[in-house]
Design a protein that fits this description.
The protein has a single domain (4-210), classed as Fic-like fold. It has 8 helices and 2 strands, in the order αααααββααα. It is globular and about 45 Å long. The chain has 214 residues and is mainly alpha-helical. The longest helix is centred in the middle third of the chain and has 23 residues, at 85-107. Strands 1-2 form a two-stranded antiparallel ribbon.
């Protein structure tokens, strides 16, 4: 079982490699270009709404929730239309991203409660962090490839630790590298019964917003 002792403090993680620096330089350049272009658009929401839908569609497709652009934009334009199950899931993703965006802009933080609100928008059952053991991750053949923490108290403690690292600057580490490490940690904790992948990808976007990179 994963324990708090197994989480290496963020400031001690060493990733100063040529490969990392090359990717970091490319990613920083592209983010800067995107931010500059968006700043020139009078109504940024028009572009961002379309991009949010695309992000929701692509992220949901990773979870085998597949829909078409036509179906998605029709459903987004008129909520009274009959929606396919996949379109409903994707639109919930966009709603969850909007919820997280509002929370970050209002509080300037990403907390465990915020993360639960985001996941609860994705998954209306709103069951919160896992409390019952038995969750394992399997490959397509059914072989167990990873067992996340099982103890409910350990999950809460690990998420509290992650919350601190999301909000306390690591002076020695670029925010993009921090984002990658923290994403890996969140997915390793796997705190929810469902929606961990989509929640984790939303957290990436919100972390960039919090750090002023979007």
């Amino acid at each position: 079982m994963t324990t708090l002792d197994e989480l290496t403090p963020l400031d001690t993680v060493k990733l100063e490699t040529v490969a990392v620096y090359r990717k970091l330089a490319e990613s920083s350049r592209l983010l800067g270009e995107f931010k500059g272009v968006v700043a020139t658009i009078p109504n940024q929401r028009i572009l961002l709404s379309a991009l949010l839908l695309q992000e929701a569609k692509d992220s949901s497709a990773i979870e085998n929730i597949v829909t078409t652009h036509d179906d998605l934009f029709r459903s987004a334009a008129d909520e009274h239309l009959a929606q396919s199950p996949a379109a409903k899931e994707v639109l919930r993703y966009r709603q969850a991203l909007d919820v997280g965006w509002s929370l970050v802009r209002h509080h300037g933080l990403l907390t465990s409660n915020h993360i639960q609100q985001i996941q609860g928008t994705l998954e209306p059952t709103r069951s919160g962090f896992r409390k019952v053991p038995g969750t394992v991750l399997k490959d397509q053949s059914g072989r167990v490839i990873y067992t996340p923490p099982q103890d409910a108290r350990a999950i809460v403690d690990l998420m509290s630790s992650l919350e601190r690292e999301l909000n306390e600057p690591a002076a020695s580490m670029d925010p993009l590298v921090r984002m990658a490490i923290l994403h890996h940690r969140f997915e390793s904790i796997h705190p929810f019964y469902d929606g961990n992948g989509r929640t984790g990808r939303i957290l990436n976007v919100l972390f960039l917003l919090k750090e002023g990179l979007l």
